[in-house]
Amino acid sequence: MRWLVGWSSTATGPAAGGEGPAVLPVGAQLLWGEPDPLWAVGDWRPDEVRVVQADPETRLAVFGICGATNDQLRVGLFAARGGALRHLTAWPGSYTAVVQVGRRITVTGDLAGARPVFHTPWAGGTAYATAALPLADLIEASLDVGHLAALLACPDAPEALGAGTPYEGVRRIPPGHALVLRAGARDIASYEPTASLAVAAPQIAPEQAVDGVREALIEAVRARLSGPRHAPDPDGPDGLDPGPVPGMGPAERRAARGAPAPGIGADLSGGSASGTLALLAAGLPGQPGTLNGHGERLLAVTFNDLATQGGQVHRTAELERARSIADNPRLRHVVVAAGEEALPYADLASGPLTDEPGPSLTAAARHRLRLLAGSADHFVGHGARQVLDAHPARLADLLLDRRRRHLLRPVTALAKADGPSAQSALVPFTVYRAARKLARTPYGEGIADTARRLLERQFADEPVAGGAVDASLAALAWCRPGPAARWLTGEALAQVSVRLGDAATRSPAVGRPGERRARAALFRQAADLRVFEQATEVRDQRLHAPFLDNQVVLACRALPDTLRVQPGARAAVLRSVLSGAGVRDLPPGWGATSHLTHVASVRAGLRHAVGELVGLFDAPLLADAGLVEARVVRKALRAAAEGEPLPLDGLAELVSTELWLRRLLARRGTCWTGAAARQRALAGGVVPRARL
């Protein structure tokens, strides 16, 4: 794991003049020193940390993948010196920028939240980092049980989560904002353009908006291709090839010892998002796998689940589409076949401690097996659904804009989504009525209604069987309970209800319901991706999610709602992106969704691991915190394993949070030297680790 950390103090440094050793992050690289130091911690590559300097007190550090040249970085530094923050966020790639101008420090987050920034008061000033756990170590923070309750009860509701983290005293800046520190005093400033409340933003033509998405996505992929190529370090731990092994080639031996292949690769699931990135990376000018002057085709990895019986037809179709796409001569296709050892909920006993809990912890072994077969730089399609698709609540936005005729196609498609039934004819009217109700419901009233439902435990209308109509109707609200809320205790739900009630009276309504819900879904996806990266981390490998880059997010936001809500809009936009890049021959069925195969694999994993999961909740830490009753969760796990239509995502959130709590409490050591916790650990014979 990699993170940056620094602080801004009121004097000449928090540790200056104090008794005892200086407080320093373990295993860190100092980029600049007191009075406002900055460190890079972890296995950063040399090209991932760039520093430009105008004078000894004016400098810019960029962490991550940034497509800007050094001259462009200097222009951005001069613009930031005058207070123009948007220049720091306008370059292709995914990165965090830190600017120092005298005693003023500015740290920018991204629009999606995949690269968050955290801060906490410390030693009379403010410490900041791109990970929450190091700051919690620094101040020896306790767990914020109320935040964990909100994360389980309303994971998609910013009103419930606020700016908190699982650690008391450690705060997160909202996506699209920057942390500004002046001699220890902090301020949070937005760098997004402010929309007028009196005049609606002008709608650009759909063709122009799609062209913008194409340009942004191509630039995002090109920013990764233009960087240096990387290979696993043969001198690192377990890096040496053990030599010939019967039945195993070099690639198999490398995967077995946990190292990726050199060069660039991509997921190739047969879906539209991963397929688009693989074809773009393979088709752009240059050699995607260039390493030491030798060209190599882009490595495309497809996962084949042999242990899941349900969704067989859909999985076969996905594999056929992936094989058809991989016929491209610039692609080298690898199919990773796995059985029960790669089902969700497999190998829960092992795994790293992540910064925060997330549902991807339950499937980390499954994804890590796929990523081990990938490359040192690996593209993933995460975030495409959230930035391109229309959230169901956008139907209410269309009604607010008096665009009723554009509702015809989406509600008709919903009527056909779950197959023919006696109620299909009523679906368009039901959806239209729900959208109209949302359009007429004030923001505060909608949030207060969700708070009331939590207190009264009203979860009857939540979708549990995965039906498209039920899911869309439940999403037509300003806020709604999450899938795990039904298993929380009354005390935990009351805590979250109070949070929502405060937000309903304190926060003014900004934006329309569809826009707010779509952004909340994007923030949640970005947070899940961050946990996914940490839980599945492979040494010497970097995951790239271009759909969550600032420029791609901005370009996708410009897509008109009338285009988004049309059935198949995501596939149509990505087809246009590929067409503009010269790729036009796509396999039949390209763009089909794969939700059924996911549900089938989760149910198979539950059946296979139900005994271990029930044992996990024999004496759960969640129950000790007053969030759940162990008996209720054990009953739900057994019922879900037997096939009852329960919300599987909610169970995954409960299990992952319990796993995360156990790993956190089993952790020894701290990220800091000179801290009180570090001294106690050394006295107790514990050797702390720098990595989280």
Summarize the structure.
It contains 25 helices and 19 strands. It has 692 residues and is an alpha+beta fold.
Give short descriptive properties of this protein.
alpha+beta, 692 residues, 25 helices, disordered C terminus
Description:
There is one protein chain. With 692 residues, the protein is of the alpha+beta class. 41% of the residues lie in helices and 15% in strands. It has 25 helices and 19 strands. A 6-stranded antiparallel β-sheet has the order 3-4-1-10-9-11, with helices on one face. Strands 5-6-7-8-12-13 form a 6-stranded antiparallel β-sheet. A 5-stranded parallel β-sheet has the order 16-15-14-17-18, sandwiched between helices. β7 (93-101) and β8 form a beta hairpin. α5 (206-225) packs antiparallel against α18 (550-557) and α21 crosses α24. It is globular and about 70 Å long. The termini are close together.
